[in-house]
Amino acid sequence: MLHVTVVTHKVHPYIFRLGQTTNWKSRWFSLKNYQEFLREDILLKEWLAKKLKTSHVSDIEIERSVNILNIIIKTARPGILIGRGGEGSQKLKKEIEKKLIDIWKRIPVLKKRPLPKREIKLTIEDIKSPNTNAAVVAQSIADDLEKRIPFRRAMKQVLERVSSQKEVKGVKISISGRLDGSEMARYEWLKSGRIPLQTIRADVDFGQREALTKYGIIGVKVWIYKGDIFEK
Protein backbone atom coordinates (compact mmCIF):
# COMPACT_ATOMS: atom_id res chain seq x y z
CA MET A 1 0.00 0.00 0.00
CA LEU A 2 1.40 3.39 -1.02
CA HIS A 3 1.39 6.16 1.58
CA VAL A 4 1.78 9.74 0.35
CA THR A 5 2.95 12.40 2.78
CA VAL A 6 1.97 15.95 1.88
CA VAL A 7 4.37 18.58 3.23
CA THR A 8 3.26 22.19 3.23
CA HIS A 9 5.56 24.98 2.12
CA LYS A 10 5.59 28.67 2.91
CA VAL A 11 4.94 30.71 -0.22
CA HIS A 12 5.61 34.43 -0.49
CA PRO A 13 2.23 36.25 -0.78
CA TYR A 14 3.55 38.35 -3.68
CA ILE A 15 4.83 35.36 -5.69
CA PHE A 16 1.63 33.40 -4.97
CA ARG A 17 -0.45 36.09 -6.73
CA LEU A 18 2.04 36.98 -9.48
CA GLY A 19 0.27 37.50 -12.78
CA GLN A 20 -3.15 37.60 -11.10
CA THR A 21 -3.27 40.61 -8.76
CA THR A 22 0.44 41.54 -8.76
CA ASN A 23 2.94 42.37 -11.51
CA TRP A 24 6.63 41.61 -12.09
CA LYS A 25 9.10 44.04 -10.51
CA SER A 26 11.66 43.55 -13.29
CA ARG A 27 10.04 44.02 -16.70
CA TRP A 28 12.26 43.13 -19.65
CA PHE A 29 13.13 40.24 -21.97
CA SER A 30 16.51 39.12 -23.26
CA LEU A 31 17.74 35.79 -24.61
CA LYS A 32 21.36 36.82 -25.12
CA ASN A 33 22.09 38.63 -21.83
CA TYR A 34 19.45 37.18 -19.51
CA GLN A 35 21.90 35.93 -16.86
CA GLU A 36 23.91 39.16 -16.82
CA PHE A 37 20.87 41.45 -16.67
CA LEU A 38 19.31 39.37 -13.89
CA ARG A 39 22.47 39.55 -11.79
CA GLU A 40 22.73 43.27 -12.50
CA ASP A 41 19.14 43.79 -11.31
CA ILE A 42 19.70 41.86 -8.08
CA LEU A 43 22.95 43.64 -7.15
CA LEU A 44 21.52 47.07 -8.01
CA LYS A 45 18.36 46.51 -5.96
CA GLU A 46 20.34 45.27 -2.95
CA TRP A 47 22.61 48.33 -3.11
CA LEU A 48 19.69 50.76 -3.45
CA ALA A 49 17.77 49.10 -0.59
CA LYS A 50 20.73 49.62 1.78
CA LYS A 51 21.45 53.15 0.58
CA LEU A 52 17.82 54.34 0.77
CA LYS A 53 16.88 52.63 4.03
CA THR A 54 15.93 55.89 5.77
CA SER A 55 13.74 57.01 2.85
CA HIS A 56 11.07 54.33 3.54
CA VAL A 57 11.29 52.75 0.09
CA SER A 58 8.66 50.07 -0.53
CA ASP A 59 9.57 48.83 -4.02
CA ILE A 60 12.36 49.17 -6.57
CA GLU A 61 11.26 48.24 -10.09
CA ILE A 62 13.37 48.03 -13.25
CA GLU A 63 12.24 48.37 -16.86
CA ARG A 64 14.56 47.77 -19.82
CA SER A 65 14.26 48.55 -23.51
CA VAL A 66 16.91 48.57 -26.25
CA ASN A 67 18.90 51.59 -25.04
CA ILE A 68 16.99 52.70 -21.93
CA LEU A 69 17.20 51.49 -18.33
CA ASN A 70 14.36 52.90 -16.22
CA ILE A 71 14.63 52.56 -12.44
CA ILE A 72 11.37 53.19 -10.56
CA ILE A 73 11.63 53.90 -6.83
CA LYS A 74 8.42 53.97 -4.78
CA THR A 75 8.90 55.83 -1.51
CA ALA A 76 6.89 57.41 1.29
CA ARG A 77 9.39 60.28 1.50
CA PRO A 78 9.95 61.53 -2.06
CA GLY A 79 11.15 64.93 -0.88
CA ILE A 80 14.25 63.38 0.69
CA LEU A 81 15.21 61.65 -2.57
CA ILE A 82 14.37 64.51 -4.94
CA GLY A 83 15.98 67.23 -2.81
CA ARG A 84 15.90 70.96 -3.42
CA GLY A 85 15.46 71.69 -7.11
CA GLY A 86 15.99 68.03 -7.99
CA GLU A 87 19.60 67.99 -6.74
CA GLY A 88 19.08 64.79 -4.75
CA SER A 89 17.67 62.81 -7.67
CA GLN A 90 20.46 63.99 -10.01
CA LYS A 91 23.10 62.99 -7.46
CA LEU A 92 21.47 59.58 -6.99
CA LYS A 93 21.32 59.09 -10.76
CA LYS A 94 25.08 59.71 -11.08
CA GLU A 95 25.78 57.29 -8.22
CA ILE A 96 23.63 54.65 -9.94
CA GLU A 97 25.61 55.09 -13.18
CA LYS A 98 28.89 54.57 -11.28
CA LYS A 99 27.46 51.54 -9.47
CA LEU A 100 26.35 49.96 -12.76
CA ILE A 101 29.90 50.31 -14.12
CA ASP A 102 31.23 48.65 -10.95
CA ILE A 103 28.67 45.83 -11.20
CA TRP A 104 29.51 45.28 -14.88
CA LYS A 105 33.20 44.88 -13.98
CA ARG A 106 32.41 42.44 -11.15
CA ILE A 107 30.60 39.98 -13.44
CA PRO A 108 33.33 37.65 -14.86
CA VAL A 109 31.54 37.00 -18.15
CA LEU A 110 31.25 40.72 -18.91
CA LYS A 111 34.81 41.85 -18.11
CA LYS A 112 35.92 41.44 -21.73
CA ARG A 113 32.78 43.05 -23.16
CA PRO A 114 32.41 46.82 -23.59
CA LEU A 115 29.92 48.58 -21.35
CA PRO A 116 26.64 49.03 -23.27
CA LYS A 117 25.63 52.58 -24.13
CA ARG A 118 22.24 53.19 -22.57
CA GLU A 119 20.25 56.03 -21.09
CA ILE A 120 19.60 55.80 -17.35
CA LYS A 121 16.21 57.10 -16.25
CA LEU A 122 15.25 57.54 -12.60
CA THR A 123 11.55 57.71 -11.71
CA ILE A 124 10.54 58.51 -8.13
CA GLU A 125 6.92 57.72 -7.25
CA ASP A 126 5.14 58.89 -4.11
CA ILE A 127 3.21 56.39 -1.99
CA LYS A 128 -0.14 58.08 -1.42
CA SER A 129 -1.13 56.01 1.63
CA PRO A 130 1.96 54.90 3.62
CA ASN A 131 -0.17 53.40 6.41
CA THR A 132 -1.57 50.79 3.99
CA ASN A 133 1.81 49.83 2.49
CA ALA A 134 3.22 46.75 4.23
CA ALA A 135 6.88 47.50 3.46
CA VAL A 136 6.65 51.06 4.83
CA VAL A 137 4.80 49.86 7.94
CA ALA A 138 7.43 47.15 8.54
CA GLN A 139 10.21 49.74 8.19
CA SER A 140 8.52 52.04 10.71
CA ILE A 141 8.36 49.18 13.25
CA ALA A 142 12.02 48.36 12.59
CA ASP A 143 12.93 52.02 13.18
CA ASP A 144 11.06 51.98 16.51
CA LEU A 145 12.87 48.82 17.61
CA GLU A 146 16.23 50.37 16.74
CA LYS A 147 15.25 53.36 18.93
CA ARG A 148 14.79 50.88 21.83
CA ILE A 149 11.01 51.33 22.01
CA PRO A 150 9.41 48.23 23.67
CA PHE A 151 8.32 45.84 20.93
CA ARG A 152 4.77 45.34 22.26
CA ARG A 153 4.14 49.09 22.34
CA ALA A 154 5.55 49.51 18.83
CA MET A 155 3.40 46.67 17.47
CA LYS A 156 0.17 47.86 19.15
CA GLN A 157 0.59 51.47 18.02
CA VAL A 158 1.18 50.46 14.41
CA LEU A 159 -1.64 47.88 14.49
CA GLU A 160 -4.14 50.51 15.69
CA ARG A 161 -2.94 53.06 13.11
CA VAL A 162 -3.17 50.64 10.19
CA SER A 163 -6.50 49.13 11.29
CA SER A 164 -8.09 52.59 11.40
CA GLN A 165 -7.66 53.00 7.61
CA LYS A 166 -10.90 52.56 5.65
CA GLU A 167 -9.52 50.29 2.92
CA VAL A 168 -7.81 47.91 5.38
CA LYS A 169 -9.81 44.74 6.13
CA GLY A 170 -7.15 43.01 8.20
CA VAL A 171 -3.55 43.30 9.36
CA LYS A 172 -1.03 40.96 10.94
CA ILE A 173 2.35 41.89 12.43
CA SER A 174 5.01 39.42 13.54
CA ILE A 175 8.49 39.91 14.93
CA SER A 176 11.16 37.38 15.84
CA GLY A 177 14.56 37.51 17.48
CA ARG A 178 16.03 38.37 20.88
CA LEU A 179 13.14 40.58 21.93
CA ASP A 180 13.93 43.00 24.76
CA GLY A 181 17.37 41.40 25.05
CA SER A 182 16.14 37.93 26.08
CA GLU A 183 18.72 35.15 25.95
CA MET A 184 16.58 32.96 23.69
CA ALA A 185 15.03 34.18 20.46
CA ARG A 186 11.25 34.00 20.27
CA TYR A 187 8.33 34.82 17.99
CA GLU A 188 5.53 37.29 18.78
CA TRP A 189 2.59 38.38 16.64
CA LEU A 190 -0.56 40.52 16.68
CA LYS A 191 -3.54 40.36 14.36
CA SER A 192 -6.65 42.40 13.63
CA GLY A 193 -9.34 41.38 11.13
CA ARG A 194 -8.79 38.57 8.62
CA ILE A 195 -5.86 37.67 6.36
CA PRO A 196 -6.94 35.18 3.61
CA LEU A 197 -3.53 33.85 2.55
CA GLN A 198 -4.93 31.06 0.33
CA THR A 199 -7.26 33.26 -1.75
CA ILE A 200 -5.55 34.34 -4.96
CA ARG A 201 -7.92 37.24 -5.66
CA ALA A 202 -7.30 38.66 -2.16
CA ASP A 203 -5.28 41.88 -2.22
CA VAL A 204 -2.73 41.00 0.48
CA ASP A 205 0.28 43.29 0.71
CA PHE A 206 3.35 41.78 2.38
CA GLY A 207 6.53 43.43 3.60
CA GLN A 208 9.50 42.39 5.70
CA ARG A 209 12.37 44.36 7.19
CA GLU A 210 15.20 43.85 9.68
CA ALA A 211 16.03 45.92 12.75
CA LEU A 212 19.67 45.99 13.85
CA THR A 213 19.59 46.20 17.66
CA LYS A 214 22.15 45.89 20.43
CA TYR A 215 21.23 42.22 20.92
CA GLY A 216 21.20 41.24 17.25
CA ILE A 217 18.89 41.35 14.25
CA ILE A 218 15.11 41.32 14.76
CA GLY A 219 12.95 40.36 11.80
CA VAL A 220 9.68 42.20 11.15
CA LYS A 221 6.90 40.93 8.87
CA VAL A 222 3.64 42.69 8.00
CA TRP A 223 0.55 41.46 6.12
CA ILE A 224 -2.19 43.94 5.12
CA TYR A 225 -5.45 42.75 3.55
CA LYS A 226 -7.36 45.36 1.50
CA GLY A 227 -10.25 43.31 0.11
CA ASP A 228 -10.68 41.17 -3.01
CA ILE A 229 -9.79 42.06 -6.60
CA PHE A 230 -12.23 40.59 -9.14
CA GLU A 231 -10.89 42.38 -12.23
CA LYS A 232 -7.26 43.16 -13.06
From TrEMBL:
GO cellular component: cytosolic small ribosomal subunit
GO molecular function, one term: structural constituent of ribosome
One Gene Ontology biological process: translation
Keywords, sorted A to Z: Ribonucleoprotein, Ribosomal protein, RNA-binding, rRNA-binding
Top-level taxon of the source organism: Bacteria
InterPro entries: KH_dom-like_a/b, KH_dom_type_2, KH_sf_prok-type, Ribosomal_S3_C_sf, Ribosomal_uS3, Ribosomal_uS3_bac-typ, Ribosomal_uS3_C, Ribosomal_uS3_CS
Pfam families: KH_2, Ribosomal_S3_C
Domain KH type-2: 44-128
HAMAP family listed in its UniProt record: Ribosomal_uS3_B
Function (record text): Binds the lower part of the 30S subunit head. Binds mRNA in the 70S ribosome, positioning it for translation.
Family as reported in the entry's similarity comment: Belongs to the universal ribosomal protein uS3 family.
PANTHER family attached to this UniProt entry: 30S/40S RIBOSOMAL PROTEIN S3 (PTHR11760), SMALL RIBOSOMAL SUBUNIT PROTEIN US3C (PTHR11760:SF19)
Self-association state and partner proteins as the record states: Part of the 30S ribosomal subunit. Forms a tight complex with proteins S10 and S14.
Protein name stated in the entry: Small ribosomal subunit protein uS3
Provenance organism: Candidatus Sungbacteria bacterium RIFCSPLOWO2_12_FULL_41_11
UniProt lineage: Bacteria, Candidatus Sungiibacteriota
